[in-house]
Amino acid sequence: MQSLWNDFGSHHTAMSVAARTRLALCLFALLAWCHGAMAQDWNLVGLGKHQETGRDIYLGGIYLKTGSARPSDLSALTGPWKMEYRIVARRTSIRSLLGSMLLQSEVATGRAPGPATTEFADGILSAIKSSLYAGDAFDIELEGNVTYALLNGQILARSSNPGVASYFLAGWISEQGPAGAFREALLAPEIDPELLAQHNALKYSEQRSAEIAGSFGVPATNEPALIDPASTAGGLPAQSLEDAAAVTPLVVEATPAPGAPFAANQDTPPTAATIGPLAADLAPATTEALPPATDATTADRGPLAAPLVDTALLAEIPQTTLAGPGVIGTARLPAEMVLQPVQPFSQGAGESPAPTAADEVMALGVQEYSQRLATFQSNMVARVYSKIRYPKRAVRRSLQGRLEIDVVLSGAGELRNVEVASSSGHAILDNAAVDAAEDAFRSGVDDVDPVARAEFGVGPDELIVPVPVQFRLE
């Protein structure tokens, strides 16, 4: 494949741009087809549902090669294996998903992402240009000593550091990880039949697969970009070798928040603690990304903006100490979730104009993006719950249910509409949730976070914020 690509580059002067484009797409399609053929050899051995602020985000699955025995302790996994994030939410961004993944792993390992993981994440961000939708399958895969990232079978990035995959896996399977209920389901001896049925029903279409494949285009050079985070340092610094495979389990029970309407199904983060030191015997790694990586996860960051928040029904986001290269120094959303004003970044004293809201969002690392998004959405959920009244007729009839409403706001935060996106199955409960949201946001939302506009925006002046509501009788 490499020699074919080199031949293609050496004869580019004799080929038209269109011909080179077609050949390049054929080469990448062939690579994806070969990888897809191998993907049919995977066997699902664990499955759990991940939630954030009460919303179902993805079904997380662990795969082993067909014929490989499932170990009793999945923390002892050796390659090849695959983590699949099968998207359940109607829409989410790769920034939100990747930020959540990295934060989970930081809590689970007590370590910030090191250079190899940071470069790998940057490669993913530079490759995905659109939102993720229900049915999409985002994978982290370990084959030999190579870590791959894929979306619907298309390779997004790869790293020669196998510990990159292990770092992400620790966020799922470590007993010190923040998602206790998710981990319990994932590591159960038998896969839950309802989750399996939901998983099997969630599939991306051929049209969606073609859309993803077509979004890559032709790389700017004749070869994929090679990023060597250790090339100028003579190897990975010892403090950043979180990218090694060993995980020391520490038992932490996740206790649901008492009285929270969606507590039975929501993963409640335990207090963060440091996991044992990870092995530090990896060779210097290179990371390969298609297309070339950006610096999206390594931008300088200031403190965050402060929305008004009611968190009586919401779990505290755990503290995470971030000390790796290019990431924020210390990030903590306290129980009050009150954050500090943003400090505008600049590239030179007095040389650059004040950044726009879009510039601010692009300058954020994915961890901070994910935290700010969680803060905004937690506030929205709390405001709705503060106005909900369980209908007496529903109580008498023992009606319960879970639904999701869409709160439609203008860019300035004015309420435009409230709609039922997915019904509880009982009109009386659906109507009660809509009434509560209309009451909660009658006066609008002050200071809509630019992160929320980026995540939920559907036009230049509108955003649709999904809010989960669960009615449950004690």
Descriptive key words:
474 residues, alpha+beta, Chalcone isomerase, Fusion Protein Consisting Of Minor Coat Protein, Glycine Rich Linker, Tola, And A His Tag, Chain: A, Domain 2, 3 domains, eight-stranded antiparallel sheet, four-stranded antiparallel sheet, 16 strands
Q: What is the average per-residue confidence, as pLDDT, rounded to a whole number?
A: 72
> Which fold name corresponds to the CATH topology of the largest domain?
Chalcone isomerase
Over the alpha carbons, how many angstroms does the gyration radius reach?
23 Å
Q: Major sheet, described briefly?
A: 8 strands, antiparallel
Report the β-strand fraction as a percent range: 15-25%
What's the CATH first level of the largest domain? Alpha Beta
> What fraction, in percent, of the residue positions are helical?
25-40%
Count the helices. How many? 13
The helix-and-strand class reads alpha+beta
Number of domains: 3
> What overall form do the CA principal axes indicate?
globular
Biggest sheet, spatial arrangement of strands:
1-2-3-6-7-8-10-9
Distance between the termini: 61 Å
Order of helices and strands: HHEEEEHHEEEEHHHHEEEEHHHEEHHEE
| Low-pLDDT segments | 1-5, 7-14, 31-39, 218-350
Write down how many β-strands occur, each being a DSSP E stretch of 2 or more residues: 16
Corresponding CATH architecture of the largest domain: 3-Layer(bba) Sandwich
